[in-house]
Design a protein that fits this description.
This protein is of the alpha/beta class. The protein is built from 6 helices and 6 strands; from the N terminus they run βαβααβαβαββα.
Length: 249
């Protein structure tokens, strides 16, 4: 699998190694950036299940990854729908990067409290799924979450700790850290919280930084760009006005 993604090292507990084909379960999967990452590092994996509410995102996922998943609302999904079987033959990794709109500084910051009705409170639907998986003796071996760093700020820390304690009760060893994309040779200053949970007693080390050699210019298309791809002055003026009104400028 490689140390870059998982970086698991043995300290007090045994080293965890993935030596079976990986089946990815992507909750709130979007266009499948998790599958893209697996593809890019050459992992032995399959895009096994997708739970995505947005039809356009789901269509993009299918087009990119050659799959044929339906549109699904996580509130309608149950453990048996995840198809976690033959765990002796397959490594199940479940991504659950729940919506960040109610956490992000760019949103209204209403949080992720249970039964609050915010999009970020869909985290607790993941709890329901994990409970069902435990009842059916089909807990995924690995859980991975990525979200904005505000997921554990002062406003949300109680809910975040509640979630970690819940996973501990289910038998997961949990590790989280804020990582910045620029520290991994990507030309973007983007901080996100990553949490890796491994079923059982394990140690985990996040990857070491990679020197930055790229800039945003490395990603931009060269040559004349059609004007249709540029925002009009009217739209940019509205965006700036909105940011000023909300106190960001």
């Amino acid at each position: 699998m490689g140390d870059f993604l998982f970086g698991v090292k043995s300290y007090k507990n045994p080293e965890y190694k993935i030596n079976k084909p990986i089946r990815l379960i992507e909750l709130f999967g979007g266009v499948g950036s998790q599958s893209m990452a697996m593809r890019n590092i050459g992992a032995n994996y399959e895009s096994y299940r997708l739970v995505e509410f947005d039809e356009k995102a789901k269509n993009s996922f299918n087009a990119i990854h050659g799959t044929n998943f339906p549109t699904l609302d996580i509130r309608d999904v149950h453990a048996e729908d995840l198809g976690i079987v033959e765990k002796d033959k397959y490594e199940y990794i479940m991504f659950y990067s729940f919506p960040c709109q109610a956490l992000s500084l760019a949103g209204k910051r209403k949080g992720m409290k249970r039964d609050s009705g915010t999009t970020s409170s869909l985290l607790w639907e993941v709890q329901r799924l994990i409970d069902e998986c435990e009842e059916n003796k089909c807990l995924p071996q690995i859980l991975i979450m990525e979200n904005v760093a505000q997921v554990h700020n002062d406003h949300n820390i109680d809910d975040f700790n509640t979630w970690i304690n819940y996973l501990k009760e289910k038998g997961y060893s949990n590790f989280y850290k804020d990582l910045n994309s620029k520290d991994f040779n990507l030309g973007q200053n983007r901080v996100r919280c990553f949490m890796v949970s491994i079923l059982g007693n394990w140690d985990f080390k996040f990857p070491n930084k990679i020197p930055l050699t790229k800039t945003i210019d490395d990603y931009l298309e060269k040559g004349p760009i059609d004007e249709k791809y540029y925002l009009s002055n009217e739209i940019t003026d509205k965006m700036v006005k909105n940011l000023k009104t909300r106190g960001y400028l």
